[in-house]
Amino acid sequence: MSENTAPENQPLPAGPFFARPGVRVESIPIGPGVPIGIERVSNPEIGIGGAYGAWGACCDNASLPALVEDQLGYSLGDDGALNLSELGFNWRHILPYLSTEEHDALEVEVGARFLREAAAASGWEPSEVDAVLIGVTMPVSEDFVDRIASQAGIPEGALKVSIHKACDGSVAGMNLALNPQLATNRLLNRNLARELLGKKVLVGGIEGLSRVMKTTYDRQALQLFGNGAGIFGMIPGRTLKFLVGGSQEVYDEEGVLQVRMTYPHSPRKTDGTSLIEAMQTGEHSFRVAGLMHEPSTDSGAVVMAGPMGMVKLFVRSGVIAVRGVYGSYRDLMAQLAMPSKEIAVGIVHHANYKINQLKAKQLLKEGIAIPMPWLLSDFGNVSAASAMIAFMRKLTALAPGDHVLFDGFGAGTYYDVLAVEMGGNAS
Fold first, then answer.
1. DSSP code of 407?
2. pLDDT one-digit tens code per residue, 19-53
3. DSSP letters of 348-365?
4. pLDDT, tens digit, 9 for 90 and up, residues 388-427
5. Cα–Cα distance measured from residue 388 to residue 401, given in angstroms and rounded to the nearest whole number
6. Over the stretch 167-209, which tens digit does the pLDDT of each residue have?
7. What CATH number does domain 3-265+273-422 carry, 3.40.50.2300, 1.10.220.10, 3.40.47.10, 3.20.20.140?
8. DSSP class per residue in 218-261
9. DSSP characters for 266-279?
10. Cα 241–Cα 386–Cα 357 angle in degrees, nearest 5
11. What is the spatial distance between Cα 167 and Cα 146, in angstroms, rounded to a whole number?
12. Torsion sign (Cα): 376, 122, 48, 318
């Protein structure tokens, strides 16, 4: 592969998400009414289906500065507005001002809808689902995953896991459900990957970041983040087969990307132990919580350094995380007498196009040539939802036996990387 093909260079699609063929748009009767668009996707050949989408009014780059200035109370000036199209983002989904109670009711309704749609796209009734693993950066309530599962009609006895590792949350959920060697399983004192083998599992990310931005004063964050969700159904060992994987923690000592924790975590300083706290929160519920470098009390919910700070934070450690798992993948292929087998596609967190492009180029310098398409120009940065949306947008192009690399990374700083094989129809 030549250098100019990794990642794929044209952000697609160019238009607003709600206008896409196949997207069902409805209005949720909360506040003035909140539009929601959901697209179902399925690949019967490999037996995987899911749903993704967004909620809130669609806003283009030209309209965004005025909204940001209205919240900040001052002008962005000549150097305050980001060149968002260069960063791979053309649209955002933004909420009106709602009360705390309205935000709570809206996000639970949204989450329940995506769970039901993902189950339906998988050919399942909600009552058939055995487990739900959801990445969410700043949940609207501590019991968010339990509530959306209950409202979606998923059995009370189904396993529910809420994963708070910022943008890495959804890929971390996949790793937890598929990788029996993952250290987090030891923190939970049970091996979820072994327990979920052959079960019907919904995994993904749900990010109501427009809600979070209502309490943010950071000019970059207000322009980058929006709402989005992506959830798919898998049967570990059948429709999705684990190959290799790993997880890495590199604490953000400098506070390059500061995020307030809206979930329980004892904010201890790093002492050589894991930054992850994994705990049981109910008879069938668990929480995996990552320590964040939090903003000062009066700094809002999110504080970001400049673009170069983001590059330094995510590219260097991100390349190390991918390199380690890719090395294990090549070793495994050699053991299986398939030394020429290649990764069909890399599904990565869409931090911004420049970060992802630089990361791909650095990997190429190390001889790791994996296509990493840019697929989320109509969402903005939607944190833990982005990798799942990207997967849904590549799903119909995949075939049984294809190998896919998932690469999650986010504030904290946390990295989960795993390679999986697409299985066959599970029916």
1. E
2. 999 999 999 999 999 999 999 999 999 999 999 99
3. E--S-HHHHHHHHHHHHH
4. 999 999 999 999 999 999 999 989 889 999 999 999 765 4
5. 20
6. 999 999 999 999 999 988 888 889 999 999 999 999 999 999 9
7. 3.40.47.10
8. -HHHHHHB-EEEEEEEE-BTTTEEEEEEEEEE---TT-SEEE--
9. --PPPSSS-SEEEE
10. 95
11. 21
12. positive
Main-chain dihedrals φ then ψ at residue 173, nearest 5 degrees: -65, -40
Which pair of structure tokens corresponds to residue 30? 């909360």
What percent of the chain is modeled with pLDDT above 90? 82
Nearest to 34 by CA among 153, 206, 210, 221: 210
- Alpha carbon distance 368, 195 (integer Å): 33
142-145 LR contacts (CB < 8 Å, sep 24+): 142/263, 142/264, 142/281, 142/287, 143/281, 143/282, 143/285, 144/107, 144/108, 144/111, 145/111, 145/285
Residue 293 has pLDDT above 70, yes or no: yes
d(Cα 95, Cα 57) in Å, to the nearest integer? 6
Q: Which two tokens stand for residue 409?
A: 């990374």
Residue 270 confidence (pLDDT): 63
Whether residue 247 contacts residue 416, with contact meaning beta carbons closer than 8 Å, is answered with: yes
Beta carbons within 8 Å of 253's beta carbon, 6+ residues apart = 270, 293
Both tokens of 380, joined, read 């903005």
For residue 287 the two structure tokens come to 């929480």
CB 325 within 8 A of CB 418: yes
Kindly state the tokens that stand for 319: 């390349």
Pair of tokens at residue 149: 């599962």
Residue type for 79, please? Answer: D
Taking the C-alpha atoms of residue 284 and residue 265, their distance in angstroms, rounded to an integer, is: 20
Helix and strand tally (H, E) in the chain? 12, 17
For 392, the token pair is: 């849904």
pLDDT digits (tens, 9 = 90+) for 6-21: 444 444 444 699 999 9
What tokens does 363 get? 């990997």
Task: Determine the Cα–Cα distance for residues 139 and 146; give it in Å rounded to an integer.
Answer: 12
